[in-house]
C-alpha cells in the first residue's frame, strides 16, 4: 500500500460541490430548451404536411370528378386502347394525380416556405422570398413548352416511324407515361436560371466560371436532356435548344447580379 496515495487524491470541498451543483443547474435548462425547440419543429412540420396533403386531395377530387371536361385536352384526339379494366383506373388515377400535383404546387411551396424560413440565413430567405413567383412561372413555362411543342412533335415522329413496319396501337398507360416524360422534366430543367442565381447569391458561382465551363456545360445539358426525355433525337434536340438559351440567359443574369452587388458595396462605403 502506497503511503502517499492519499496525497494524490483530489479532495472536493463542500464549496466545490456547490459549484458543481450550480453548473448542472445552469446546463439543465439548455437541454430542455433544445427538446422544446425540436418538438415545435416537428409539430410545425406535421401541420404543414397535413395542409399539403389536404390541398392535394382537394384538387385530386375536383380533377377526378370533372374528368370528362379535361380528357380531350389530354388525349388530343389520339386513339388509345386499354388492355383491361384496371388500366382504365390506372390511367385516370395517374393523370389525375399529375394534374392535382401541378395545381397544388403553389400551395405546397408556400407551406414549405413557412416551415424552412426560420432556419434560413438572411440572404437565402430574401432570395427565396423574391424569386418564388419566378420559380413557379418558369416551371409552368417548361410544362407548357413540353405540352405544346415537345410532346406533339416527338409523338408524331415516333408514330410515323412505327407505321412504316407496324400497325401502331398506343395503350392508355403508355400514352400517359410518354406525356409525363415530355412535360414534367422540362418544368424542372427550366429552373436553371434560378439555380444559377441562387448559387451566385451565396458566392459559389460567378459569370466568369460559367463562361469558362460553357462547352462542358453544353455536354452535361445534352446528357441530362437525353436522360430526362424519350429516347428519340427529336425530343433531345427540342429540349437541348432551350437549355442552351437558358444557360446563356443565366450568365447574363448572374453578371447583372454581380454588377448590382458591386454597386451596393461601393455605396455602402462611407466617403472620406
Kindly describe this structure.
This protein is mainly α and 272 residues long. It folds into 2 domains: 14-119; 121-272, no CATH class. It is built from 11 helices and 2 strands; from the N terminus they run αααβααβαααααα. The protein has a two-stranded parallel ribbon. It is flat and about 70 Å long. The model is unreliable at 23-28 (pLDDT under 50).
Count of domains? 2
Q: List unreliable stretches of 5+ residues.
A: 23-28
Let me know the average pLDDT. 81
Task: Count every beta strand, where a strand is a DSSP E run of 2 or more residues.
Answer: 2
Q: Report the structural category.
A: mainly alpha
Content of β-strand? under 5%
Which percent bin holds the helix content? Answer: over 70%
Short description:
The chain is mainly α and 272 residues long. It has helices at residues 5-8, 14-65, 67-75, 85-116, 122-165, 172-181, 184-189, 192-201, 207-212, 214-228, 233-268, and strands at residues 80-81, 170-171. It has two domains: 14-119; 121-272, no CATH class.
Amino acid at each position: 500500500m502506497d503511503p502517499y496515495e492519499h496525497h494524490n487524491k483530489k479532495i472536493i470541498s463542500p464549496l466545490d460541490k456547490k459549484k458543481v451543483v450550480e453548473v448542472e443547474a445552469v446546463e439543465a435548462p439548455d437541454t430542455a430548451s433544445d427538446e422544446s425547440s425540436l418538438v415545435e419543429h416537428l409539430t410545425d412540420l406535421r401541420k404543414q404536411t397535413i395542409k399539403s396533403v389536404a390541398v392535394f386531395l382537394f384538387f385530386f377530387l375536383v380533377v377526378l370528378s370533372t374528368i370528362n371536361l379535361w380528357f380531350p385536352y389530354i388525349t388530343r384526339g389520339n386513339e388509345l386502347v386499354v388492355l383491361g379494366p384496371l388500366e382504365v383506373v390506372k390511367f385516370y388515377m395517374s393523370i389525375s394525380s399529375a394534374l392535382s400535383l401541378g395545381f397544388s404546387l403553389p400551395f405546397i411551396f408556400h407551406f414549405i416556405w413557412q416551415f424552412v424560413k426560420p432556419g434560413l440565413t438572411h440572404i437565402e430567405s430574401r432570395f427565396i422570398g423574391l424569386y418564388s413567383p419566378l420559380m413557379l412561372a418558369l416551371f409552368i413555362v417548361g410544362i407548357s413548352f413540353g405540352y405544346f411543342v415537345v410532346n406533339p412533335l416527338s409523338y408524331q415522329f415516333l408514330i410515323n416511324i412505327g407505321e412504316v413496319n407496324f400497325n401502331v396501337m398506343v395503350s392508355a398507360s403508355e400514352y400517359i407515361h410518354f406525356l409525363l416524360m415530355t412535360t414534367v422534366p422540362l418544368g424542372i430543367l427550366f429552373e436553371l436560371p434560378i439555380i444559377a442565381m441562387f448559387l451566385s447569391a451565396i458566392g459559389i458561382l460567378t459569370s466568369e466560371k460559367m463562361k469558362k465551363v460553357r462547352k462542358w456545360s453544353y455536354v452535361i445539358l445534352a446528357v441530362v436532356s437525353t436522360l430526362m426525355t424519350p429516347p428519340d433525337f427529336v425530343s433531345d434536340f427540342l429540349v437541348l435548344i432551350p437549355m442552351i438559351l437558358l444557360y446563356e440567359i443565366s450568365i447574363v443574369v448572374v453578371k447583372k447580379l454581380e454588377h448590382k452587388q458591386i454597386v451596393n458595396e461601393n455605396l455602402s462605403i462611407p466617403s472620406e
